[in-house]
Amino acid sequence: MHEASIMESALGSAAAEMRKAGAREILRMKLRVGVLSGVVPEALEFAFESLKGATPAAGAALEIELMPAVFRCLDCAAEAELKEMAFHCPRCRGCLVLDHGGNELELTQLELN
Ligand SMILES: [Zn+2]
Q: Residues 35-39: contacts with CB within 8 Å, 24+ apart?
């Protein structure tokens, strides 16, 4: 499963940060996940619950921040922030192109003890 290996590496970098900071456990982790990254948040949560037991994050809470993608309409120039892939402008049904965002996949916050 894709999400399991992503979570394994997130837990690994969280543990490395923890050691660097001289802390003993991870209380909270925040991951930023773009809607076009191909990652399913529910699967990520499931991977977290099944993998965290043997790590310093055993008692940690996971927060997933879902990042929208920003599209631009080629016809009316409107910008649309969407939570899924789309090809038609919500305003004029024109042709949408991806402008930026949506591919994020990173550990953005750690709370340590
Ligand atoms: Zn449009």
A: 35/66, 35/67, 35/68, 35/69, 35/82, 35/83, 35/84, 35/85, 35/102, 36/69, 36/85, 36/98, 36/102, 36/103, 37/102, 37/103, 37/104, 37/105, 38/2, 39/2, 39/3, 39/6, 39/105
